[in-house]
Amino acid sequence: MSARIIDGRALAAALNAETARRIAASGFRPGLAVILVGDDPASTVYVRGKDRAARAAGIAAESILLPADTSEAALLARIAALNADPMIDGILVQLPLPPQIRPRAAIEAIDPAKDVDGLSPVNVGRLFAGRPFLIPCTPLGVMKLLAAADVSISGARALVIGRSSLVGRPLAALLLTADATVTIAHSRTRDLAAECRRAEILVAAAGQPELVRGDWIGSESVVIDVGIHRLPGGGLRGDVAFAEALPVAAAITPVPGGVGPMTIACLLENTLTAALARRDQPARGQPGRG
Ligand code: NAP
After folding, report:
1. Which member of 117, 144, 225, 239 is catalytic?
2. Each residue of 84-101: pLDDT tens digit?
3. Is 94 tagged catalytic?
4. What are phi and psi of 268, to 5 degrees?
5. CA–CA separation, 161 and 202 (whole Å)
6. Taking 70 as the threshold, does the pLDDT of residue 126 lie above it?
7. What is the gyration radius of the CA atoms in the chain, in angstroms?
8. CATH number of 26-112: 3.40.1130.10, 3.40.50.10860, 3.40.710.10, 3.40.50.150?
9. Which of 258, 195, 193, 248 is closest to 220 using CA atoms?
């Protein structure tokens, strides 16, 4: 039997349409500032994509492009100005940053109320306390994919491969809040294959192309592939050997067309959530926030 494909493109399009509808009904335009330091080609593409999607949803998006030799103090001053700007609801600093800037310093400078990437200590603390507000976009997208695919999370054995602040750790916290029994695997995990075989929900976010093989996957398992790897000859691969996994898993996200489109869709939703909270309006349809 072939796994059910979980279509991230369709879900992201539906979420974007819903965010645009809610913005149109709100009577205001949320403001989003995306800061890019330097001209890293992949980051430039991501920032352009975010800018385009935000404008299409009715968000007043602003890309702030700073030279690669920008000092940490100059970046922090720019963030402070955006924190104080009443027209700005969301601030995102595109990572990675040049070596003279500490990523933590930049992230911690963002007002938690405008931290639409959900990486500031206040938002991380709220997430791990089970009271999330602004949730990192990729893990939030994974949770929405699971919900849309009607995956029963409560009581399920979930394995998250990867423990980064951006993906693995926040995702493990979200799965725990949703009552999964969560295991986090990383580069020191012994016998990753055995951990995978036990998992009913398997999320691969290791940054290793096709790390998870078909014979690591249980027949009832739902596989979410967060990895993105550009092949030298063009095309994309994930952290899961898709062709091997397809005949085995119960459901799986493809790469491309799975988690990737959900990340930007969740950024737009987070911008609206931040804008509504700053205006003291409840973010309807956002269970678990508060
Ligand atoms: P990261 O910061 O490099 O973290 C990778 C994690 O995987 C680390 O915790 C590492 O363990 C673990 N790991 C590495 N090799 C492993 C192995 N052989 N076995 C088990 N664990 C292993 O990466 P990230 O930022 O979390 O991103 C992960 C992947 O997701 C990348 O491919 C990235 O491009 C992709 N991504 C996609 C989206 C999207 O929108 N779809 C968004 C963000 C990231 P240690 O901690 O022990 O080193």
Report:
1. 117
2. 999 999 999 999 999 999
3. yes
4. -65, -45
5. 8
6. yes
7. 19
8. 3.40.50.10860
9. 248
Query: What is the best residue among 140, 208, 229, 240 to mutate for testing ligand 1's pocket, by most ligand atoms within 8 Å of CB?
Result: 208
Atom of ligand 1 lying closest to residue 229 CA? 32
Q: What is the pTM of this model?
A: 0.96
Is the distance from the beta carbon of residue 185 to the nearest atom of ligand 1 less than 6 Å? yes
pLDDT at position 81 is: 98
pLDDT at position 284: 55
pLDDT for the residue numbered 58: 98
Of 7, 94, 144, 239, which is the active-site residue? 94
CATH of 136-260, one of 3.40.50.1000, 3.40.50.720, 3.10.360.10, 3.10.450.60: 3.40.50.720
Beta strands in 84-124 (DSSP E): 90-93
